[in-house]
Amino acid sequence: MLKNRIIPCLDVKNGRVVKGINFVELKDAGDPVEQAKIYSDGGADEICFLDITASNENRETIIDIVRKTAKECFVPLTVGGGVRTIQNITDLLLAGADKVSINTAAVKNVDFIKEASKKFGSQCIVVAIDAKKVSDNKWEVFTHGGRNKTGIDAVEFAKKVEENGAGEILLTSMDKDGTKSGYDVDLLKIITNNTNIPVIASGGVGTLDHLYDGIVKGGASAVLAASIFHYGEYKIKDAKEYLNSKNVSVRL
Amino acid sequence: MNVTIVDYQSGNISSVINSFAEVAKGKVNLEVTSDIKKIKFSDKIVLPGQGSFKSCVDSLNKISGLVDTLKDFAITNKKPLLGICVGLQMFADIGYEEAETKGLGWIPGKVSRIDNQKGKFKLPHIGWNEIEIQKESKIFKDIKNKSHMYFVHSYEFIPEDKSVISAITNYSSKIVCSVEKDNLFGTQFHPEKSDKIGLKVIDNFLKL
C-alpha cells in the first residue's frame, strides 16, 4: 500500500533557513544542509527547499546548497522558488534535485509546464499553487509569494496544469499559511476531487491533528509542514507515530 | 572493480550518481559515461532512465553502437547489469508511452500504463510503497520483506515469464517492482532515493 508522505519544508533565504509568518516576518534558524540531514535521518519521506531569495543574482547559492544536500540525503529532494526557465531546471537537477516546484512561471505561461515535463518527465515537475479564498467555495490563484492576484480560478488552474504534464500539485492556502490553524481542508478537497495527480497539502499546520485532516479529510497524498518541525515542537517520528496510531498509513 | 553508470542524456541522473558514489566510496571505481570502450571493459553496468519510455529508447539509439555494446555486455557476455525505473522498463520488447516503441527485447514483455481503475488511484504512482519479495534475489540480500522503497512512475513492466519477477508492490493492482534473470537486474523503484534501505540494494549489486 502506498504510504502518505510527510515532507518538511525548509524556506531558504540567501543560504540560510528561515520560516515566514504569513511570508513577511522572518526568523533565522540555521544551516539548510544540516537541517535537511537531520530531517532525512529522522525519517522524512522527502525534503523540500523553497528559495525565497527570489533574485537571479543569488541563484548560485541555492544550487550550492542543493549540491551539498544531495550528497548527504538519499530521499527525494524538491526545490522551488524562482524557477522560471528550462535552464533553471537543468541547473537544479544537475546539482542533485529530484523535482522542481514551479509557481509564478506556470501561471504566466502554462506551456512552460508542458515544455518542462516533456523535457524532464512529469515525475520531476511539481506545480506550486498558492490559493486564496475569494467567496464561498471559490479560490483564486496568487503569485509572487502571495502578493499578486491573478483572477484565475484555482480549480480550473489545477486541472490545466495536470493536462499540461505536471506530476504533482503543491497546494498552499494563502489564508492559512503561517497561522498554525490547520490546512484549508475545503480547498484541499475541491482540488483533490477535481484532479488525478497527487496533491501535497501546505500552509497552516500547527498540530499533528492538522496533518491527519490534510490526508483524511482533504484527500492529500502528502503533507508539507515547516515550523512545527523546524522549531522542534515535533519530530518527524512523532508525526508518523501519531498518524499511524490513527490508522493513517505512513512509512515507519 | 569498474562500474559504469551509462549517461545517455536520459534526464536527471545526478541522484543515481550521488548514491552510487556514496556506496562505492573507496571500494569501487565508478565511471559515468556513454563511451562505448569504457562500457565494454566495465565489470558492471547501471542503466538509469527518466522521462518516457520512448524518449529513453530514442536517446539510447542516438549514441552510435551503444545498444549493441549493452547487448554484448548483458546478453552475450552475461555480465551484471542493473536497470533502474525506465532503465528496467527498456528490457521489454515494447512500450506504449507516448507512442508504440520497440524496447531492447532482453526480457519478453511489454510496458503499459498502470490501470488506475478509472481514476480511483492517482497517477503517477509517487511515494513510498512496500515491496513484496517473490523470490530470492541477490540484490535483496539482508533486505526484509515489506521494506519501503520510493516509486515514481505511471507505466509498468509486464513480463511474459512471471518467474523473472523478484518483487511486486501493491497499488491499484500488483505492480512488478523488480526483476532478476541470470545477470540482469532491474528495479522499478528508485534505490538511489530509497534512503538507507535503497543504498543497501546498491551495495548488494556492487558486491555481486
What do these coordinates show?
The complex is a heterodimer of chains A (252) and B (208). Chain A has helices at 32-41, 59-70, 86-95, 104-108, 111-120, 154-163, 185-194, 208-217, 227-230, 236-245, and strands spanning 5-13, 16-21, 25-28, 47-51, 77-80, 99-102, 125-135, 138-143, 148-153, 168-173, 199-202, 222-225. Chain A has 252 residues and is α/β, with parallel strands linked by helices. Chain A has an eight-stranded parallel beta barrel, surrounded by eight helices. In chain A, a hairpin with a 4-residue loop joins strand 8 and strand 9. The longest helix of chain A has 12 residues, at 59-70. The radius of gyration of chain A is 16 Å and the shape is globular. In chain A, 56% of the residues are buried. Chain B has 208 residues and is α/β, with parallel strands linked by helices. Helices cover 26% and strands 31% of the residues of chain B. Chain B has helices at 14-24, 36-40, 53-62, 66-76, 86-89, 195-207; strands at residues 2-6, 29-33, 44-47, 81-84, 94-95, 101-102, 109-113, 125-133, 148-153, 155-159, 165-170, 174-181, 184-187. In chain B, strand 11 (165-170) and strand 12 form a beta hairpin. Chain B is globular, with a radius of gyration of 16 Å. Chains A and B meet through helix 3 of A and helix 1, strand 8, strand 9 and helix 6 of B.
